[in-house]
Amino acid sequence: MPTLFAPTTAPRTADRLSSLPLVAVCLGYFMVILDVTVVTVALPAVGAALHTGVTGLQWVVDGYTLVFAGLLLFCGGLGDRLGARTVFLGGLLVFTLASAGCALAPTATVLVLARLVQGLGAALMVPASLALLRTAYPGQAARARAFGVWGTVAGLAAGAGPVLGGVLVAGLGWRSVFFLNLPAGLAALVLTIRHVPDSPADRTRPGLDLPAQAAAAVGLAGLVTGCIEAGALGWTHPAVLGAFAGCLAGLVAFLLLERRSPAPMLPLPLFRARAFSASAVIGLLLNTGFYGLLFLAPLYFQRVHHYSALRTGCALLPAVGVVAVGSALAGRITARTGPRLPMVAGLAVGAAGLSGWLLAGPGTPYPALVAPMVCAGFGTALTMPAATAAVMEAAPGERSGAAAAVFNAARQIGSALGVALFGTLVATHLVAGLHLAVGIGAAGFLAAAVLSARCIPGTAGADDRAPGKRT
Q: Is 197 exposed, middle or buried (0-12, 13-18, 19+ CB in 10 A)?
C-alpha cells in the first residue's frame, strides 16, 4: 500500500498552507458522515425494492456505524504507525469500492455486507483526516479554523443526509444515494495524492493490538445488538440480556488487555488530561442526542404526518441551514477564546432544541418544530469543532491519530447508541417514545455542558495536555 500510493513528487511546501489539503480531507470526511444519515429517508424504498423487513433495514443503518465505531481505535493506531496519508488513501479506496457494491446490491444481505465494508473504509479515513489537518496547518489559529471547517463538513453532511436522500430517492431511486460517492471518492483520491502532506509515521512502534481490538468489537456489538433487539424482544429477554453481558465482558477484557499490552491501541495516559477525557464523553453524548433525533425525525414526519421522502427531506432543512454558520462561528471563537465558550453555549442551545421536540404530536403544526430544529442543528454545529480542537490540543503530537480515533469512536458509539436506543423507544408508540428519547437527549446535552464548563480550557492555548505533550 505505501508503494501504491506513493506520489511521484513530494507535495509542494506551498500546499501545506493552501486550501487544497483541507478540501481533499473534508471531501472524504463528508462522504463518511453523509452515509451515516443519507439512507434514513431511503429505507422504505430499499425495503420495498429488496423485500426486507424492519430488522434488515435496522442493520443497513447500524451495521455501517457499528464497524465504523468498532475499528476507529485500531485504525487510529494504524495511522500513527504507517502514516496518516497512506491510511487515509486506503480508506478512501475501500469506501469508494464499497459504495459501488451498495449501489449494485441485488439483495438486502449483500447491501448489509457492503455497508459493513463501507464502515471499514470510514474507520480508516476519519482519524487519519484529523492527523493530516494537524500536519498541513501547524499554526494554532490556522489549525483551529481548519478544524472548524472540518466540523462544518460533519454537521452539513449529517444534516444534509436526510434532505439529499429524499431528493435522490424521489428523482433517481435509492441506488443513486450510493452512486453519489463514486465521483466524490475519485476526486478525493486525486486531490490527496497531489496536495496532502503526510504526517510523521512511527514505524518503530510494536505490532498492533489485535486481541484488544477483538474485545472492543465484541463489547460494542453486544451494546448495539442489545439495544436494537430490545425493541422487539423486550429488555428482559435472554437474548437481550446475553448481548449486554457480552458487552460487559468485552469491555472488561479490553481494559485488561490494554493495561498489559506493550503497544496499546488506546494509550490510557491520554485520559489523564481532563480536557481529553471530558471531550470524549461530550462527543458521545452529543452524537447520541443529535443522531438519535435525525433518525427519529424522518420517522415522525413520514409515519405521523404521512410526508413523502422528498417532503420529509425538505422538512429537515431548518436543522441543516444553520450548520455552516454555527461551525464557522465555532472555529473563530475557539481560535480566539479556546473551546470552552462555544461548547457550553452550543450544548445549552442544543438541549433547548431537543426539549422543543416535546411539542411534537399528531396535531402539531410543522412551524412549531422549526425553532427546535434550528436550535438542535446550531447547538451541535457550535459544539463539535470546539470539542475536536480540545481533544487534539490535549494530546501529544505523536499520538494525534490515536487521539482522533478515541474522539471519533466516542462520537460514532454515540451515533450507534442513539439510533439503537431511540429506535427501540419508539418501537411500540412513536410519539410517546419520541418524547422520552428527546428528554434523554436533552439531559445528555446538559450533562455535557456541565462537563465543558468544569473541564475544558477557557482560554486559547491553555495548558491542559496529556503527559508528553510537546510545546
A: middle
Which of 24, 196, 46, 45 lies closest to 115 in space, CA to CA? 46
**65-74, 154-163, 443-452: which has the minimum mean pLDDT?**
154-163
Angle at 254 between CA 444 and CA 248, to 5 degrees: 55
pLDDT digits 0-9 by tens, 167-200: 888 888 889 999 989 998 999 899 888 877 766 6
In sequence order, the 6+-apart residues with CB closer than 8 A to the CB of 41 are 162, 165, 166, 169, 298, 309, 312, 313
CATH number at residue 198: 1.20.1250.20
- Does 305 score more than 50 pLDDT? yes
Round to whole Å and give the CA distance between 148 and 333: 10
Please report whether residue 401 resides in a domain: yes
Total of domains in the chain: 2
pLDDT bin (cut points 50, 70, 90) of residue 203 is: low
Mean model confidence pLDDT for the chain:
81
What is the Cα–Cα distance from 1 to 415, expressed in whole angstroms? 31
Whether 240 and 275 map to the same domain: the answer is no
Which of 262, 281, 305 lies at the terminal end of a domain, its last residue? 262
Q: What CA–CA distances, in Å, run from 442 to 190, 288, 314, 380, 422?
A: 42, 10, 24, 12, 13
Identify the pLDDT of residue 461.
Answer: 45
Q: What is the pLDDT of residue 13?
A: 39
Residue 5 lies in a domain: no
Domain that holds residue 65: 13-208+263-455
| Domain co-membership, 309 together with 180 | yes
311-316 contact pairs (CB < 8 A, 24+): 311/166, 312/41, 312/162, 312/166, 313/41, 313/162, 313/163, 313/164, 313/165, 313/166, 313/167, 314/163, 314/166, 315/366, 316/159, 316/162, 316/163, 316/373
Asked if residue 225 and residue 319 are part of one domain, the reply reads no
- Residues 361 and 242 placed together within one structural domain of the fold: no
pTM of structure = 0.77
As a whole number of Å, the CA-based R_g of the chain is 21
Which residue, 244, 262, 280, sits at the end of a domain?
Answer: 262
Does 256 share its domain with 286? no
Residues 291 and 317 in one domain: yes
The pLDDT value recorded for residue 1 is 32
Q: Are residues 214 and 143 in the same domain?
A: no
Query: 18 with 159, same domain?
Result: yes
Mean pLDDT of all residues in 373-399 = 82
DSSP secondary structure code for residue 7 in this structure: -
Q: What is the mean pLDDT of residues 204-213?
A: 68
Please check whether residue 132 is in contact with residue 27, taking contact to mean a CB–CB distance below 8 angstroms. Answer: no
Among 201-210, 215-224, 268-277, 313-322, name the one with the lowest average pLDDT: 201-210
